[in-house]
Write a structure and sequence with these properties.
single chain, binds arginine, 20 helices, alpha/beta
């Protein structure tokens, strides 16, 4: 569907051409003087030099050629040569009707859909999800949904961290505590027990304990390194333990992600890349890319244009163990083989940027990927507490994701019960829905690459630029539509008519921005654009609501028009929050 902006530009371009100027000057932008006009064209200013003419003379010629316009109700030249524009009410109403009928609400879908893998979530087995994992999950999930909406084939992969030192640490600590376990008996050839020798809570206690010990005790650390290596070599007992750890841990992770409404198409893990490592390494050696440096196997990835030092990419440690880089490279090999993607997007903490520069360069240089495969890295900033330091619990510990969510839901529950518009038995469920909007909107409304402050009071407020405010607006619309139906009204009847007042026109104009917003949110990997947009729509709607009698409108045709406009506003808002990864309750 042709956007409003495009249609305006087309008319103006034609007028520029008719007046003897280059049509490319006919671009239209949103007005920076909303008190004077809705849109403006600065083409005459830009063309002045080329035509050696005063800009207002060009603008006068163009407006004269515009004549009776299908699109504009006003086209006015103001000195020194701007063309101020207002959109014709009938045209705007027709545009919204067309948008309403469009399955994608005016978003143009990709002509050639791409296969895009998004690597997000990135939790580590046996470590509880903490706030550090929140951003990747929220941002990645939203990008996946936006990508699909604009027509791409998007595959979300959680890429579990299951192959690193943390596994060796857990195994070592288990061995310390329960050396009698059959998993440590090398002579054992029977079947290992089905039941794990630990629960999730034990597992979560074991890891930090082991990690702490390894920092002070070198012997212990070496044992853990050795255990990691043995595991990677496929030691039977360790593999059986690893399987237990995986099962217990993944069940818990899935439950947590479910609560966040985050879901993955693939539950692939670092260890899945293991089978690809030997051949990949061999090839890199044979092709002369990989060489030995102080016992380790490395590939140079620095480039002439580098302004800072990019160290070589390490493939194997001196003991032959693989590293984070190795599994990431081998995962690329696997992804190419299984999905032949056009793009792989990693949504990971921006502090890992150097790692990804090395991995991308190494993959390209050694020919692991076709030339036109696009690697993208969306490095996000840190979620800080009010003190500007990384978010912590009150006593300074790492905040578990589960606890953070529980805190927010509790706060939301308190506010909702205070409002008393929801029956008690719904309040709990509603608090969860609204709580999720508070967390996700609070995060997504910031540009992903920037750090931000997680402010519970602000995020859970029903006023201002928050998730609950957006939901409140949707709930308000839903309740008007419900009342209309209860009074016998038909939600499908009628059509959108010309705006009756400024606030209605403003709402209508704002709604036209949906298509461009979603398209650019995808292009720029910027869900925050959708947040900014729905905040604007909500404000526009609420002004309209306060200034206009909707259900008491006596003219039936006009009332139906309002209802249609409300219906479209609701669709735009609900689709948007769906793209952000949350939903609205029926009441609040
Ligand atoms: N598990 C990693 C971490 O906690 C994040 C994984 C990101 N994805 C990747 N392909 N490296 O830091």
């Amino acid at each position: 569907m042709k956007k409003l902006m495009e249609q305006m530009a087309e008319e103006l371009s034609a007028a520029f051409e008719k007046a003897g100027y280059d049509p490319s000057y006919g671009k239209v932008t949103v007005s920076n003087r909303p008190d004077l006009c809705e849109f403006q064209c600065n083409g005459a200013m830009a063309g002045a030099k080329a035509y050696k003419k005063a800009p207002f003379m060009i603008a006068d010629d163009v407006v004269a050629c515009l004549g009776e316009s299908r699109v504009f109700s006003m086209a006015e030249v103001v000195k020194p040569g701007f063309i101020n524009l207002k959109v014709k009410e009938e045209f705007l109403a027709d545009y919204l009707e067309e948008m309403d009928a469009d399955e994608k609400l005016s978003v143009n879908t990709a002509e050639t859909p791409k296969t895009i893998i998004i690597d997000y979530g990135g939790p580590n087995v046996a470590k509880p999800l903490h706030v550090g994992h929140l951003r990747s999950a929220i941002i990645g999930e939203s990008l996946k949904r936006i990508g699909r909406y604009v027509g791409h084939k998007v595959i979300g992969d959680v890429h579990l961290g299951d192959w690193g030192l943390q596994m060796g640490l857990i195994i070592t600590e288990l061995k310390c505590r329960k050396p009698e376990l059959v998993y440590f008996d090398d002579s054992f050839t029977g079947e290992y027990p089905k039941e794990a020798p630990f629960t999730i809570s034990e597992l979560e206690e074991i890891y930090p304990c082991a990690s702490g010990k390894s920092k002070t005790d070198e012997v212990y650390r070496n044992e853990a390194l050795e255990a990691t290596h043995l595991l990677q070599q496929g030691n039977r007992g360790y593999m059986a333990l690893w399987n237990h750890i995986m099962q217990v841990s993944v069940t818990d992770l899935k439950r947590n992600y479910d609560n966040l409404k985050v879901s993955f198409d693939l539950w692939k893990k670092e260890s899945d890349a293991q089978p690809y490592i030997p051949d990949m390494v061999k090839q890199m050696k044979e092709q002369g890319f990989a060489y030995e440096d102080q016992g380790a196997l490395v590939v140079d990835v620095k480039e002439e244009s580098d302004t800072k030092e990019i160290p070589p990419c390490m493939l194997l440690k001196s003991d032959g163990a693989s590293l984070y880089t190795t599994t990431d490279l081998a995962t690329i090999v696997e992804r190419v083989k299984l999905f032949d993607p056009d793009e792989i997007l990693y949504v990971v903490d921006k502090r890992q940027e150097l790692h990804f520069i090395q991995v991308f360069r190494c993959a390209r240089k050694t020919g692991l990927v076709k030339e036109d495969l696009k690697f993208s890295f969306l490095g996000f900033g840190t979620m800080n507490g009010k003190d500007g330091k990384p978010f912590k619990t009150r006593d300074g510990g790492v905040m578990r994701l589960e606890n953070l969510i529980a805190d927010i839901n509790e706060e939301m529950y308190r506010k909702i019960v205070e409002n008393r518009s929801v029956k008690d038995k719904d309040a709990d469920e509603t608090a969860k829905i609204v709580g999720l909007s508070a967390i996700k909107y609070g995060d997504l409304s910031n540009q992903a690459t920037k750090d931000y402050i997680f402010d519970v009071d602000r995020f859970t407020s029903f006023e201002g630029n928050t998730g609950p405010y957006i939901l409140y607006t949707i709930v308000r619309i839903k309740s008007i539509l419900n009342r209309y139906q209860e009074e016998g009204g038909d939600l499908k009847a009628g059509r959108i008519l010309s705006a009756v007042n400024e606030s209605e026109k403003n709402l209508m104009l704002t709604l036209t921005g949906f298509g461009a917003t979603v398209e650019s949110a995808f292009e720029e990997k910027a869900p925050h654009k959708i947040c900014a947009y729905i905040y604007e729509v909500s404000n526009a709607f609420n002004s309209f609501y306060h200034e206009t009698k909707i259900l008491s409108e006596e003219n039936q045709e006009q009332k139906e028009s309002f209802i249609q406009l409300l219906g479209l506003t609701r669709k735009v808002l609900e689709t948007s929050i769906e793209l952000l990864g949350f939903s609205a309750p029926d009441r609040m």
